[in-house]
Amino acid sequence: MKKVFDHTGIAVRNIEECILFYTEVLEGKVIDRYRSEAEGVESEIAIIDIDGDRFELLMPTNNSTSPIARFIKQKGKGVHHIAYRVEDLDEAIEELGQQGIRTLEGSRRTNKHGRRLIYLNPADTEGTIIEYCDYKG
């Protein structure tokens, strides 16, 4: 199945400062901003577009349960994940299983824009968190 680069997720401690950097220094544009308190997300999210390239700035809103907070505590701020758009998420997950690639338990969800997503297990991706997503909704 064809995979197309979709966006880069960046874990941040201060979303306001990061937005200023991405908009003033890199000349990007904020195209969306929202807060998600869904279990396994618990983040404030800003989507930045820079000449067609997308970045998700992810700031934890709950430092005891947010996976972004855990990531920052373990690895520091910076690139959290790389996302690839697939034609059909269900088929892509089936294909991953046939290839022996696991997904992170509990990571499958649909965001507020209808983007369905799941994270691949970094133990099977040489340590990189990779997201597969589709836009069925």
From TrEMBL:
Q: Cross-referenced PROSITE patterns, in alphabetical order?
A: VOC
Keyword terms: Metal-binding
User: Do the record's keywords include S-adenosyl-L-methionine?
Assistant: no
GO molecular-function term, one example from the UniProt record: methylmalonyl-CoA epimerase activity
Q: Which domain of life is it from?
A: Bacteria
Mind telling me which InterPro entries this protein's record contains? Glyas_Bleomycin-R_OHBP_Dase (IPR029068), MeMalonyl-CoA_epimerase (IPR017515), MMCE/EMCE_epimerase (IPR051785), VOC_core (IPR037523)
Q: Cross-referenced Pfam families, in alphabetical order?
A: Glyoxalase_4
Keyword presence, Calcium: no
What is any one GO biological process for this UniProt entry?
L-methylmalonyl-CoA metabolic process
Q: Could you tell me which residue ranges the VOC domain spans?
A: 4-135
Sequence similarity:
Belongs to the methylmalonyl-CoA epimerase family.
The name under which this protein is listed is: VOC family protein
Q: Which species expresses this protein natively?
A: Halobacillus salinus
